[in-house]
Amino acid sequence: MRSTLVALLLLAITGGCRTVRWNRPGASEQDFYRQLRQCEQEAQPKFNFCWGAYCDAQAAELRHRIDLCLRSNGWSGRTTRGFSTTAFSFEGSEG
User: Which of 1, 62, 87, 94 could serve as a FRET partner for 68 with CA atoms 20 to 30 Å apart?
Assistant: First the structure.
């Protein structure tokens, strides 16, 4: 029983850690962060208040709106797991 609880705790801690690495051919890191700022401004709700579990749902909806905005502006995202300070990061072109 105790090992099951430890396993569930580890899954909860590491399972929620994700970052999306964004790329668009010919775009620079500055282009990405400029577009990200614009998408964040467009995605912000007019009224931003919450309590309890609703805060988690509101944060998830905000990330989803930003994701849709970036994709609609030609960015492609690749989800990776691991610890990150932000949910969005620039990947750049390989080559």
Answer: 94
